[in-house]
Amino acid sequence: MRKIAKEKLGALLAAVGRDKPLYIPALDASGQARFTRWHEGLEMARALNTVRSAKDFFFPQTENLVDFKVKGKQIEIIDPRSEQEDFVLFGVRACDARSFEILDKVFLADPVDTYYQSRREHGTVVTLACTQPEETCFCSAFGIDAAAPEGDAQVWMDEEYLYLSARTQKGDKFLESVRALAEDGGEDAVQRQQEETRRVMAKTPLAGLNLEGFDGEHLNPLFDSEKWAELSQACLGCGTCTFVCPTCQCYDIRDFDTGDGVRRFRCWDSCMYSDFTKMAHGNPRLTQVERFRQRFMHKLVYFPANNDGQYGCVGCGRCLSKCPISMNIVKVAKELSKEVR
Amino acid sequence: MQEVMLEKAKELLQSGAVDRVLGWKAGEFAYDITPCVFASAQELEAGFVYNDFCGNNLSKYLIKESRKGGKVLAFLKPCDTYSFNQLIKEHRIVRENVLVVGVPCQGMTDGETLKAKGVKGILGIKTEGEDFVINTLYGDRTMAKKDALPERCLSCKSKKHVVYDELLGQEGDKLDSGRFDLVNKLEAMDPEERFAFWRGELSRCIRCNACRNVCPACSCEKCVFDNDASGVAQKAAADSFEENMFHIIRAFHVAGRCTDCGECSRVCPQNIPLHLLNRKFIKDINTLYGDYQAGEDTVSRAPLTNFTEGDAEPSIVTKGGKKA
Amino acid sequence: MTQETLIPKLGVVTDIRIDTPDIKTFRVVGLDGKKVFDHMPGQCAMLSIPGVGEAMFSITSSPTNTEYMEFSIKKCGCLTDWLHQMDVGQQITIRGPYGKHFPVEEEFRGKDLLFVAGGVGLAPVRSVINYVRAKRENYGRIMIVYGSRSKEDLLDYDEILSEWMKDEGVEVYLTIDRPQDDWDGHVGFVPNYVKELAPAKDYTVILCGPPIMIKFTLQGLKELGFAETQVYTTMELRMKCGVGKCGRCNIGNKYVCKDGPVFRFDELSQLPSEY
Questions:
Q1: What are phi and psi of A132, to 5 degrees?
Q2: Full residue range of the structural domain in which residue C275 is found
Q3: A157 pairs with which residues across the strands?
């Protein structure tokens, strides 16, 4: 383990950000933290989590898939991608770090999504351990340790030092790039911080969220539950929960007429939207009840049924804070657990 | 007040005067309250709540609820009654199926607003006089209620209900709380500065549609932005001006119908002060056509859907971008 | 090299056949004049006209046709409207093949096969029929029950008359919903016709058509003693990616594009009825 005096944080960021894009959480005009491209003088936010998740860097809200030139009956297909450059994400929390594992299971499964893959290969994820969890945090329900985040390299920060440790080759490279600033040591301080964080985490109100029974075995009883109508009653059908979610990965593919060609792009989509499954001849999910059910069944039942029990949620709590009507996965899980236990 | 409302609701349900009750339901924490339709005294006992966190405007839900048959009791805050009236005016709510019970409101806050003030790890919130005593994972904290209010409540236009069948508690007054102060500030900017301000704010938009879906004035059966054939239903920014256009078009569409309830800004996950766009329109309408408050009544003609020979004829073409 | 799944290939439409008043069959080859890719019966492809849309269609020609692919497409939306008004020589984009195919080699070999189709539901089934006709020696008896609204709405009518009906050991039963002057065949709905014909219950069944026809046919087959494990169908839901990632074509935890579109009814009845 290496440590760097906290007053050298600026120097650390500069050492990394000088030769490649570096993104750190920084406050925006409205006072919320978001990953922002580092530049000299940009201060790192101390907020627990960013308002948008870190998935944006691997699965951006919109991206160009392919361009077409159309001339009469002729079509020309153009791959619009330029070479992906290396970049570093600094300050990713444990929940978001785990979300990449979930996204990988979708995008890196055969056939591989090369757009996502190339960003994953070129991105270095440096995580930051949490010290002050919020009441909306429930990453522990998914076996995530907020005090020991995953990622290529891990960082713990206290009032005096940053403590760094590499977990992968990319992490080694990251540590190497800040070698001049670092000295050895810090194991004891990190251990003390971890113990304290785990102590607080255990006291958070949602720490004991029990997901027993949410699995493929109970797919039909959960799907058929009468509770969905009541739970979805006030749902506005907006996409807030899906768009702030670090694991939501559904997308739409659309064409945009650029004037001298057609740009086919993909963009985040939401199962909460009424047109998500709409076809020319009908829609299997006609009301918000079915759309709402799909989102939670996907995260709590379908995804684990297809992925060895891993849930499609990391307990980051963003949907808890952001849902306009305060309906969320925790309330759904608690209410539906009565159906399977 | 919660107890009084609960008794009233149970009484009206029991007497058969109403079949359902539209109100607010308690959540996991002190602040995460969900709009809810209660069908029995039992359901009400289990979850009905009315406190300083019931910010959701319930009027829009009545579009659906009032068409379901039977009668629904709706608890409406002063600000919700303006939306209710406006929806009556637009023939969206079936009036005879709703029993409106007006309830007082001292301003509503929410978890996000508290957190923006630096409160972390909220475990419980108690009210002591004019203060919140907030129990957190990191110790207790006291905050004056008035310091915990969002902008929309600090600049509240009225504590007076514009419609009700019954009223609980003390009726309030219309207020002059300087709700155009921020608009004045925007108007005082030079055009480049103002353009940069809105471009900056709107650049954060993620097109989640929360503002549109919560808006009582956005009650179209099918929104133009959901219509594939419209050419603007792109879901995402196909170019960098797309989000700006979405909000500008929406602001134009609700102009003269927006009651200034501020729900758009409350629900925006990106903290974009969307209600200021609408307030600018309200202020302009007041200036050009005389004071008008959407939702104040159900019969008057709105300035933008009415024509008189004395009408001002402003042109965005000649005045746009230039200081008046 | 990793195969790009979202970047399509180019195809050109070399023939357009008017099948019914609202169905046309399009013949597609690559720009080099060869088939764009190989497929198995029941698999699908994403066809698109840039700027108009992209959608999933089942490949209606048989893999045994080594020269071109065919798609029978009903006019019912934005993209299909466009396809119906285009001319031969139009280039289109194509990607695929997608999905699980009918188990023509794995399960169907040596079995008696009963095909039941309604309306445009014959399109995906035609690929299987022509595949087993081409490899006739590998399969047992073949019985085909096909119905549509009217004689004009019968898909592939010429091919049925000139080829299928002339094949040895292939029984073809056609029906239309309502009587009409130039029709002396059977009149009535497909589910009832199947019950009247009362096929022996050792057939393996390939069933495709509108939901209501599927529902009643399946019910009738069960009454005749058929088990769900004998009956296969193919599904259709809104799709964008075709590879199980865009998240919209699921029925329960199965994606129609990847785990389907071909399902056996015992698999389907395990899943929530959200389709």
A1: -130, 80
A2: 235-275
A3: A162
Whether residues B115 and B183 fall in one domain? no
Written as one letter, the residue type at C105 is E
Which tens digits make up the pLDDT trace of C210-240? 989 999 999 999 999 999 999 999 998 889 9
Entry pTM: 0.94
Terminal Cα-to-Cα distance of chain C (whole angstroms): 37
Q: How far apart are CA B208 and CA B271, in angstroms?
A: 13
Q: What is the mean pLDDT of each run of 10 residues along chain B (324 residues)?
A: 96 97 97 97 97 97 96 98 97 97 96 94 94 96 95 95 97 94 96 94 93 96 84 69 84 96 97 96 94 95 86 63 48
Which tokens in the block code for residue B312? Answer: 């001002």
Same domain, C129 and C88: no
The reported pLDDT for the residue numbered B316 is 56
Domain range spanning residue B94? 1-108+158-177
Q: Which of B270, B271, B274, B276 to mutate to test the interface with A (most CBs of A within 10 A)?
A: B270
Residue C230 backbone phi and psi in degrees, to 5 = -95, -10
**C139 CB neighbour count, 10 Å cutoff:** 19
DSSP B304: G
**Residues A155, A159, A160: CA angle, nearest 5 degrees:** 80
Which sequence spans correspond to the domains of chain A? Answer: 2-64+81-203, 216-250+270-340
Q: Does B236 touch chain A (CB under 8 A)?
A: yes
- Rg of chain B in Å (alpha carbons): 21
Task: Give B270's DSSP letter.
Answer: T
Q: 3-state DSSP helix/strand/coil percent for chain A, to nearest 5?
A: 35, 20, 40
What gap in Å lies between CA B35 and CA B82, rounded to an integer? 18
As for how many domains chain B has, the answer is 3
Using CA atoms, how far apart are residues A267 and A250, in angstroms rounded to an integer?
9
Cβ–Cβ < 8 Å for B217, B86: yes
Q: Judge whether C44 and C57 are in contact, CB under 8 Å.
A: yes
CB contact under 8 A, C253 and A65: no
Beta-bridge mates of residue B134: B125, B141
Question: Are residue B88 and residue B198 in the same domain, yes or no?
Answer: no
Strand C204-208 vs strand C186-187: parallel, antiparallel, or unpaired?
unpaired
**Least CB–CB distance from B121: residue in A28, A132, A242:** A132
Q: What is the pLDDT of residues A14-41, one digit of tens each?
A: 999 999 999 999 999 999 999 999 999 9
Instruction: Name which of B121, B209, B273 is nearest A135 (Cβ-Cβ).
Output: B121
How far from the centroid of its chain's Cα atoms is residue B198's Cα?
21
The answer to whether A284 and C237 have CB atoms below 8 angstroms apart is yes
| Residue A315 C-alpha, separation from nearest chain C C-alpha, in angstroms | 21
Cα angle B173, B178, B179; round to 5:
90
CA distances (Å), origin A162, targets A1, A171, A183, A185: 10, 15, 11, 11
Taking a C-beta distance cutoff of 8 angstroms, is the pair A264, C50 a contact?
yes
Minimal CA–CA distance to A146: which of B58, B121, B265?
A: B121
In sign, the C-alpha dihedral spanning A333, A335, A338, B3 is: positive
Q: Name the token pair of A308.
A: 């060895």
Q: How far is A136 from chain B (nearest CA, A)?
A: 8
Report whether A336 contacts A227 (CB < 8 A).
yes
